[in-house]
Structures are given as structure tokens and as C-alpha cells.
Amino acid sequence: MQTRLEAVVVPVSDADRSRHFYRALGFRLDLDVTTGDGSRVVRLTPPGSTCSIMFGSGITTAGPCCILLTVPDIEAARAELVARGAAPGPVREVPTGVRAVSFLDPDENEWLLVESMPLNRP
């Protein structure tokens, strides 16, 4: 069976605030709909990614999550996050030996950016 990760559900308390936050980071807005029962689904895609995030009302009751993104240049990625209004921590080396930086969204979901690293895949 061949699969592809399509979207990750991110728990948020305010869909409008989160939509604005992620749009300011350069995420592409793919969908923002309200269903007949009043539930709302917002879908955004990070620049250069084939996997999206989804949030809204009536989607999940889960607590904060951690999402990992890879970037080719960690210093440039951190500088862009700062320029776009995020508050990333310092660049650090993680146990796998790669450099990483993290930041929180308004709902305490953690985003971990790591420099691209080769994966050993069968």
C-alpha cells in the first residue's frame, strides 16, 4: 500500500486568530468553510509543502501537538520566522545531530524546524 500524508489536524481555540497567524507566516489558504451544523474547517499549507494543516471548530478536542518541518537553511528559516512575527528560540543541536529551532503558535502547538537530513528508507 502506498500512502501520502495529506494533512495534520492542529488543535486551536480561535480559528480566526490561528488563520491570521499562519497566513502571516506565509502559509497558503486552501479552504475555509462553515458546514451546515456550524462546524468550521480551515486548511492551510506551509510554503513548499505537500502536507497541510487543518483546524477549526468541532474538529478536535486534543491538546497542543508538535509538528516537525524540514528546511534547507536553519539560520535563514529562523530569520524569516522573526521577520514574519513569530518568536522562535535559538538555533540548537538536537540529539540526532542536526540543528533545529522551535516556536509556538497562539495555542501552544510547537513547531520544530530542522535542517534537512537524509533518511534511511528501505
UniProtKB/TrEMBL annotation:
<keyword id="KW-0456">Lyase</keyword>
<dbReference type="InterPro" id="IPR004360">
    <property type="entry name" value="Glyas_Fos-R_dOase_dom"/>
</dbReference>
<dbReference type="InterPro" id="IPR037523">
    <property type="entry name" value="VOC_core"/>
</dbReference>
<dbReference type="GO" id="GO:0016829">
    <property type="term" value="F:lyase activity"/>
</dbReference>
<dbReference type="Pfam" id="PF00903">
    <property type="entry name" value="Glyoxalase"/>
</dbReference>
<feature type="domain" description="VOC">
    <location>
        <begin position="4"/>
        <end position="116"/>
    </location>
</feature>
<dbReference type="InterPro" id="IPR029068">
    <property type="entry name" value="Glyas_Bleomycin-R_OHBP_Dase"/>
</dbReference>
<protein>
    <submittedName>
        <fullName>Enzyme related to lactoylglutathione lyase</fullName>
    </submittedName>
</protein>
